[in-house]
Amino acid sequence: MSVSLPSNPDSPKSDASLTQWLDYMQQIHVSAIDMGLSRVLPVAEHLGIVQSAKEDTYVFTVAGTNGKGSTTAVISALCQAAGYKTALYQSPHLSHFNERVRINGEMVSDETLIAAFDKVESARLQCGLTLSFFEMTTLAALLIFAEADCQVWVLEVGLGGRLDVVNIIDADLAVITNIGIDHVDWLGDNVEAIGSEKAGILRDNISLIYGATEMPNSVQQLINQHNASCYQVGIDFSYSVVDENTWQYSNAAVTLQLPRPALSLTNTANALSAVLASPLEVDINAIEKALTTVKLAGRFDYREIKDRYWLFDVAHNEQGVEFLLAQLLPFWQQHLIKQAKQNSQSSDNKQPATIKMLFSMLADKDISMVVQRLTQANLPISAWFIGEIDYPRAASIEQLKTVLASQVDASNIHAFADLQQATAAVIAEAQPQDLIVVCGSFHTIGETLVALDVA
Question: In whole angstroms, what is the distance from residue 1 CA to residue 407 CA?
Answer without folding.
Answer: 49
